């Protein structure tokens, strides 16, 4: 703080408050009375076996699907749907738009001026600087995913929801893009679905595991230290061990 100068306060984004959320498809209850809170500015990784209900939960939080009952609201008491950037499992790139046009699509739809420098910076950071004019059909699966990540980051929303965003990337690119996400999403409220315990422990402040039928959330695991953690960080390894033990217990 500068003496007699302005106090530079960091404005925290809103967190997410989920209260008594229940989801049923016919007689099948996916989860029941799920309640939890993600504090503003925290990066939470959500894990759990396939089909347990992770994507459904993320879509409900993002306002893309309806819960049977329960509420989702910002920790500031206001709705969050218009403050979210959402990246789903499918990259949803528009096939007739090139990479640059896809990344800046949100601005186009809102009829805003396009921040060309920001889009170019992101495309460079995800390794697509020579692909601005390429159509999605001419990209590999990993490239498409990187374009979708750039599009999500372009939005600069206070809350970011991501469903397995790095799954199609090779190990080296994945590590590079994880570093980029940790850097650019620092200070935002993030909920990331991943099947990769290492990824969760590299990036998350807290880890939540959804398990059982109907699914419940266990006590969150807190990972000490600042993301992105190096793979040989003892805190990462400790949390990864804790997570794997939990998976084994849940499978019994
Ligand atoms: N629209 C729907 N109608 C009926 N059942 C559905 C619908 N959407 C999801 N389900 C069911 O809800 C359950 C949870 O699905 P969901 O996609 O949320 O799981 P997940 O944990 O994200 O799985 P994965 O890790 O494989 O992506 C599954 O049994 C799925 O078949």
Automatic annotation (TrEMBL):
Report if keyword Transmembrane is assigned: no
- SMART domains recorded: AAA
Q: Which UniProt keywords apply?
A: ATP-binding, Nucleotide-binding, Transport
Report if keyword Transport is assigned.
yes
* InterPro entries listed in its UniProt record: AAA+_ATPase (IPR003593), ABC_transporter-like_ATP-bd (IPR003439), ABC_transporter-like_CS (IPR017871), ABC_transporter_ATP-bind (IPR050166), P-loop_NTPase (IPR027417)
Q: Which residues form the ABC transporter domain?
A: 16-236
Superkingdom of the source? Bacteria
Q: Which residues form a coiled coil?
A: none
GO-annotated molecular function: ATP binding; ATP hydrolysis activity
One Pfam family here: ABC_tran
Q: What family does this belong to?
A: Belongs to the ABC transporter superfamily.
Instruction: Identify this protein by name.
Output: ABC transporter ATPase
